[in-house]
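Bug #77: duplicate submission created two jobs. Keeping one. Sequence:
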Amino acid sequence: MENNRAKKMYDYHVWANQQVFHNLKKLPDGVYEDTIKSVFPSIKEVLVHLYATDITWLEIMKGSTVQETFKIVEQRRKELDGISLNGLESSYDELAKDYDNFLTSQPDLERTIVTEHPKMGACEFVLADLFHHVVNHGTYHRGNVSAMLHQQGESGTPTDYVFYCLK
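Kept job's structure:
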């Protein structure tokens, strides 16, 4: 059993994202990029949003300013233009490695970090709480993907935490 709860939750997040990619690869061509009337215009856009947000929080946790973070995210989003499902999955895998490296380098995930937001001013966060936020955000958007698949007549895949614990 993993003693570091933030790491265990992040590992669940990675596993759940992998389940989504595995499921999407089994579906007919086009499902990933087809435009539908939903919260996002396509499943690809949901996954790109989730990826970009995960980058945002990692950069903030690493100490990047909000301005630096936005530049990094913008650059990484540009790299995703026209990316295939397999290419996006590889980008997720690399980001998971970056998160893992960050996690293992942190002696205290209960420490507070402060970042200056141009509109909200100084924002204080406990690192472990940010990891839980990343996971919660991912859970929400994996639910969007599942709903969008159902709109297209396809099935989602179970990504509930209990399935991760049973693996």
